[in-house]
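Supplementary Text 2. Reproducibility record for the structural model of the 177-residue chain.

All settings were left at their defaults, and a single model was retained for analysis rather than an ensemble. We include the record here because the model underlies the residue-level annotations in Supplementary Table 4.
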Amino acid sequence: MIISKKVEKALNEHLSLEIAAQYNYLSVASWCDKEGLEGAAKFFYKQSAEENTHFMKFFAYINEVGGHALVPELKNLKYEFKSITEAVELALGHEQKVTKAIYKILALSKDEGDHATEDFLRFFVDEQKEEEVQFKRILDKLKLIGKGPQSLYYIDKEFEKLSAQATGKKKKDTAAE
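Retained model, structure tokens:
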């Protein structure tokens, strides 16, 4: 086994955060669809798919290095939101929680002398920085646009732009691999 039992346990615990993110984004996407926010729905469906990819990377890594990946139980999923701002604040809060968890696993890996896991986590350190910055910027734009029925149109258009940018970035990243 390449990883210690402590690191394996921490990685398995982290799986619950990644799967929760996937389903939280899926729930927000569905709510956006229901509310007529097509651009926002598209954005959050893509976020959900990205989180599924992250979950599967962690899952596969655990098994690859001699551990046993465990499918986590999902609890406390939210289905209704007061506003798009509340949904984005929830997303930012969850991303911050994921970042803290990754940092803890990284510190544990260093303590355990587990260089393979340290290397594996580097991608996620960068990814979390991008996610947090993105959601902070979205919240800033939501504040600038303001509240009211007309503002939802502009907010939805901003999400549509973000979704298109994410698609372009993913194509560029895939080509680089």
